[in-house]
Amino acid sequence: MSAQILDGKAASAAIKADLATRVATLAEHGVRPGLGTLLVGDDPGSQIYVAGKHRDCAQVGIESIRVDLPATATQDEILKAVDTLNADPACTGYIVQLPLPKGIDENAVIGRIDPNKDADGLQPTNLGWLVLNEPAPLPCTPRGIVELLRWGGVEIAGAQVVVVGRGVTVGRPLGLLLTRRSENATVTLCHTGTRDLAAEVQRADIVVAAAGVPSIITADMVKPGAAVLDVGVSRDAEGKIAGDVGLGVAEVAGWISPNPGGVGPMTRAMLLQNVVEAAERAAGLA
Ligand SMILES: Nc1nc2c(c(=O)[nH]1)N[C@@H](CN(C=O)c1ccc(C(=O)N[C@@H](CCC(=O)O)C(=O)O)cc1)CN2
């Protein structure tokens, strides 16, 4: 068996085309959404992702505002930049690119974001709305994963999903999203304290690997026909991506997301979608 490809590039291109028409409609109502990014330091991966977000904005007609601070920026300087974005009327939504440099209190910075401008759905108020199942911007990678599964025709309702990794940008919110009534999956969240990872993965219909450990998911762990999504991004010395899913898994799985070209482009598309939806709500067009 060879797995069907969950092509995030193709799926995100269709989403972006739809968003471009919605941005044009907003323009007819005198509304121009603007996405801000705050990047601190020189992490090579973060530089690539932020540049991609600005390219995406240009493609769909969203204005973009880029704020870069050096790796030496203090907590106070970062909070000041957050306050400036909170106050900037041209910036209708923004993100603080993660991770922040060592020594910075990440939660304090995210907590300072105006929840109404939180394009990432990671501000504590919005994560709280997600727990309460109330409308709010959703975290981009989990939302992108759900959309990619739907796009590929993978049955989510009733599925046994194993998520590997309990990080705040992927694993934890993904568990909340997939267990909503509208998705209705059963989710097991695995992490470094999981006793027998292989046994958990072996009974999964859908595996989401977001551990950041190269090739942690091997072919012998995967149930034949399962959907396997690779969210892991480790980089070698040349900056080349090594995913969490090992060689040979594609021969066993029913669906597989490439990495790059799978969940990453969906993450970026969902960020644009959050920005457009917020602008539509504000304009009374939602
Ligand atoms: N504030 C946030 N920080 C981070 C998030 C997030 O959702 N919000 N998630 C990740 C990184 N991320 C988004 O910022 C992200 C990851 C990957 C991609 C992407 O398009 N990847 C490409 C490959 C690009 C490359 O060559 O490296 C792909 O998969 O095809 C976009 C965004 C951590 N931080």
TrEMBL record:
Keywords: Amino-acid biosynthesis, Histidine biosynthesis, Hydrolase, Methionine biosynthesis, Multifunctional enzyme, NADP, One-carbon metabolism, Oxidoreductase, Purine biosynthesis. SUPFAM superfamilies: Aminoacid dehydrogenase-like, N-terminal domain (SSF53223), NAD(P)-binding Rossmann-fold domains (SSF51735). Residues 139-282 form the Tetrahydrofolate dehydrogenase/cyclohydrolase NAD(P)-binding domain. CDD domains: NAD_bind_m-THF_DH_Cyclohyd (cd01080). Pathway: One-carbon metabolism; tetrahydrofolate interconversion. Its EC number is 1.5.1.5, 3.5.4.9. InterPro entries: Aminoacid_DH-like_N_sf, NAD(P)-bd_dom_sf, THF_DH/CycHdrlase, THF_DH/CycHdrlase_cat_dom, THF_DH/CycHdrlase_NAD-bd_dom. It catalyses: (6R)-5,10-methenyltetrahydrofolate + H2O = (6R)-10-formyltetrahydrofolate + H(+); (6R)-5,10-methylene-5,6,7,8-tetrahydrofolate + NADP(+) = (6R)-5,10-methenyltetrahydrofolate + NADPH. Pfam families: THF_DHG_CYH, THF_DHG_CYH_C. Belongs to the tetrahydrofolate dehydrogenase/cyclohydrolase family. Homodimer. PANTHER family: C-1-TETRAHYDROFOLATE SYNTHASE, CYTOPLASMIC, C-1-TETRAHYDROFOLATE SYNTHASE, CYTOPLASMIC-RELATED. NCBIfam families: PRK14193.1. Catalyzes the oxidation of 5,10-methylenetetrahydrofolate to 5,10-methenyltetrahydrofolate and then the hydrolysis of 5,10-methenyltetrahydrofolate to 10-formyltetrahydrofolate. This is Bifunctional protein FolD. It comes from Mumia xiangluensis.
